[in-house]
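To fix ideas at the outset, we first show an illustrative case, written as a sequence plus integers encoding its fold:
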Amino acid sequence: MRTLVQTTYELTRAQLKARYRNTFAGLVWVILNPLIMFGAQAIAFKHILKIDIHNYYLYLVCGLTPWIFLIMTIQMTTPVLLHSGSLLKSFKINPLVLIFSQVADNFLNFLLAFSIMYLPIQLMYSPPSWSIMLAIIPLVLLIVSVCAVCTILSLMQVFLRDTNYVVSFVTGVLFFVTPIFFSEDMVSENYRWMFDFHLPYLYIKAFRSCFYEFNLDFFLLALSKASLSTIFLVSIASWTWKRNKNELYLRI
């Protein structure tokens, strides 16, 4: 376990150094990409479609940035084992390191982009609340769950080569049925029960509740659902990895 964590740290550090060495565009794009998406959606949904949500910019940024992290990480990590076949066969390296380092890389980018976007928007409405310190809990659950999902999908890509196409389609559809730019209250009560099984949204909901109109009971309920989802995903990922890790080298 210690070797896995240490190797993941070293590989993530090397990736960050390689990406930002002698370049400014890479760092700017980490911020610019979510900023452009935020600006486009704020204009489209707030000013054109006239979605009426209190403190809408804050609501949107606290949902959109973790969503971008989730989707970009899943899409980037799904093919990583298949594309790293020669590396895994040439060096004695745990395949999980490649997955976890990619997740860690994107997570650091997410934290940077969110911090830069969140602070000025929050100050537009009021000083930041103490509740933002609680965000560390859903963030830990989020990164653990993303590692689990990416492990499952990366293995699936090795055995089913069209997995990445399915993932791109599903994530594209999910965006429009996830309360990121709209709220649960806008959905008919007959369909709100589905959000209890919407895994990406459970983490976004817990994270957003720390920044947007904090309510302790609401936060604890959202956190409990995210915790149960994390246990479920980690269990599935562990079972999938143990069952297929030996055959992995025969397929890549």
